[in-house]
Every structure is written in C-alpha cells, then in structure tokens.
Amino acid sequence: MKNTMKIVNQVYKTNDYSIFNTIKGNRPLNRLHKKRLMESMTIQHLQSPIIVNKNMDIIDGQHRFESQKELNLPVYCIMMDDYGIKETHRLNSNSSDWKTSDFMEAYALQGLKDYIIYKEFYKDYGFGHQDCLNMLTGTIKDRNIYTIFKTGNFKVTNHKDAIEIAEKIAMIAEYYDGYKRRGFVQAMQLAFNNPDYNHAKLLQKLKYKSTELVDCTNYRQYCYLLEDIYNYKTKLSDKIRLI
Question: Among residues 106, 86, 84, 109, which one has the least CA distance to residue 97?
Fold first, then answer.
C-alpha cells in the first residue's frame, strides 16, 4: 500500500502561537465547541493539524488552535499557500459545525451587501433562516437556497416585499404566538400570493376567532385552518383557497 502513496504536504509543529493569524470572514468562535475540544485535549491531545496559508492565516481549525493555545499545547499545521476565505467556507460548507448563522456572520463581515441586508432582516424580524431566505428571494420552498447561501452567492431580490410580508405576519402576533413557525409563515406567503386575499379581513376575523388558530404540523394544515377562519361568514364569491 505504501508504494501507491506519495508525500504531498508536510506537517509542522510549533508552540509559537504568535505566528498564526485569524482570517477575516471566518465564523465567530463558539465557546461551547472550544470548551468541549479543550476537555478532549486534556484527556488526550491527538495530532489533528490545522490548515494555514502562506500568510499563516488559519483556514481551517481555529477552534483547535485556540484550544491548544489556551492549554499551552503544540499546534500542528499543514500549509496550503494559496488558500483563502473562499476555501475556509468551502471546507466547512458541508460540516455540521457551521450553521446558517455562521455563514451569515462570515459573509457580512466580508462586506457582502446582500448578506448585510440579510443579517439586518434576520435580526429585525426574528423569523427562521429558511423563512428569511424565502421572503428575501420571493420563494416559498426552494431546496437549493441553503446551498447558494453557503457559497456566498446569495442575492436579495425581494427586499421591499419581504419587509411588507414580515410586517404583516408580525401583526398576527397578538392573536397567535406561533406566528414564526415555518409552516405558518409558508401558509401566509401563499395567502399573500393570492390576489383575492385581504389581510385586514383576516385580522378582523382573528379578533373573535383567534382561539381556532392553533399549532399545525405543516403548511398545508395551516392553509386549511386559515381558510376556515378567513372564510367564516363570508359569501361564496368572496371565499378564498390557499392550496
């Protein structure tokens, strides 16, 4: 087996932590993740090299580095000269360690306008990432949107309408505390896409029908529920269907 392998990169070892740099656009440190790594390293410090570039920027392994530094343990590293922040994100795009918020913070820190807008919208309205992505792109169930978001190619195409949708959904908070549930948000988006839907009418009905607005398991159930509430005591010509 050894005859089929060749040496590609060398592993370096050092206790000089000052030679390493954090890279702008990487995710913020997760204190819990670092704590768990330190606990593991205290039991046994395994050789798990971090990846750096020619400037000694840490491309992958910042939590390992910070843990080793705090414990005064040697740092093992592999140098990939031309790697940068794009490679950092790509290395972590399929990792469960990187969450949607990590990519949001990282790309916003890089100054990408669409991610700055996204972060502001996410912080202002507090909906889940899937719903924020949907609202800001004018979609409802786009399976590829997470992949696009992780690569740094996300574009806001529906900002003004997204704000209007978020504001209207937030009006329901006084009648239903589950208004941020994904299925409910999706059902409301379908309602807004219906040209016959009148939001003021739904709010009026909720004043005396709010107890009927309960948690559902998916957007279809929410659609049927909203239809029942909206269409209550409404003449046939004015009734709506959401799905």
Answer: 106
Gap between the Cα atoms of 86 and 53, Å rounded: 12
The token pair at 151 is 């690569």
Alpha-carbon distance 236 to 221, whole Å? 21
pLDDT in tens, 167-183: 999 999 999 999 999 99
Name the helix (H) or strand (E) containing 50.
strand 50-52
Residues 6+ apart with CB under 8 A from 156: 114, 117, 118, 136, 137, 162
Contact call for residues 77 and 51 (beta carbons, < 8 A):
yes
Per residue in 98-111, pLDDT (tens digit) is 788 988 988 888 88
Element (H, E) at 112: none
Instruction: Check: CB of residue 137 under 8 Å from CB of residue 156.
Output: yes
In Å, the largest CA–CA distance within the chain is: 81
Q: Which residues pair with 57 in a beta bridge?
A: 21
